[in-house]
Request: fold
Amino acid sequence: MTSDQGSRCPLCGGVKAPGMTTYTVDLGSGVIVIRDVPAMVCERCGEEWIGADTARTLEGLVEAARRSKRQVEVVAFEAAVTAA
Ligand SMILES: [Zn+2]
Reply:
């Protein structure tokens, strides 16, 4: 069976469904929290997968947060993307 590849969780065999996750990075000098990040989420074990485009956007947000030197930065993914 190869037709179903990508829609099943490789860890537990559960079904992956589109959802949202919160992405947190500890920069050492501070912490950035990015909310409402689109991801595929396993309905059984909760494992999350972020797409390549989303990952690239997250990298940009993390870089911007690193430069801002704030202790804690919380942003919503959609708002950050729209502002970029
Ligand atoms: Zn799973």
Q: What stands out?
A: The first strand starts at residue 16 and ends at 26. Residues 21-37+51-83 form one domain.
